[in-house]
Design a protein that fits this description.
Elements: H1 4-22, H2 26-31, E1 34-44, E2 51-61, E3 69-80, E4 83-84, E5 87-105, E6 108-124, E7 132-150, E8 153-161, E9 166-176
Antiparallel strand pairs: 1-2, 1-9, 2-3, 3-5, 4-5, 5-6, 6-7, 7-8, 8-9
Length: 178
């Protein structure tokens, strides 16, 4: 199953949602409390050279559960594949998370999250070996630092264990609808 079109479609929806809410479309602003976009270093176990992936996230706060709890949907896909010698590994994912944000001090917050992710990895060795094509549903864990930059804009640094073999370390911008 080729996950790249699915991940691209989900990422486009994230960006469209963010743009629509920012433009004053109240339907999106009521359903989504924040949207993230960023770049991440992508590490695959057994591959020495990291790749670069794009991530897009939308989140909805649930104060009726806890004032700091939110649910998130996230998609990511490789822009530059993690590689070693003649082996390239593309990773595409879509996941859902429960997240808890904790105020540290001033403009700094920490976010912890856990969820399930559907990750597709495709290894290509340029015909020199037999490639692989795997799709797995896995538990994903992450932690972020969020800095309140200005008004609705935040800057974040994030680490996510996407699957037991793939992890992300990235930075990006978060827009919070108020």
């Amino acid at each position: 199953m080729n996950m790249k079109p699915i991940a691209a479609f989900i990422s486009a929806l994230v960006l469209l949602s963010a743009h629509s809410a920012h433009a004053g479309n109240s339907v999106y602003a009521e359903q989504v409390d924040y949207a993230n976009g960023g770049l991440t270093l992508q590490h695959v176990d057994g591959i020495n050279n990291m790749g670069i992936a794009v991530i897009g996230t939308v989140g909805k706060k649930f104060p009726e559960i806890d004032k700091n709890f939110s649910a998130e949907a996230e998609a990511s896909f490789s822009l530059i594949d993690p590689s070693e010698s003649s082996v390239d590994v593309s990773v595409y994912s879509a996941g859902g998370y429960g997240a808890y944000t904790h105020h540290l001090s001033g403009e700094l917050r920490a976010k912890y999250r856990a969820g399930l992710v559907l990750a597709h990895s495709q290894a290509d060795c340029g015909g020199l070996c037999r490639g692989s094509d795997d799709t797995d549903l896995d538990v994903s864990l992450g932690a972020s630092l969020i800095y309140d930059y200005r008004d609705n804009y935040k800057i974040f640094a994030d680490w996510t264990m996407l699957t037991s073999e793939v992890s992300h370390l990235g930075v990006g911008v978060r827009y919070e609808y108020k």
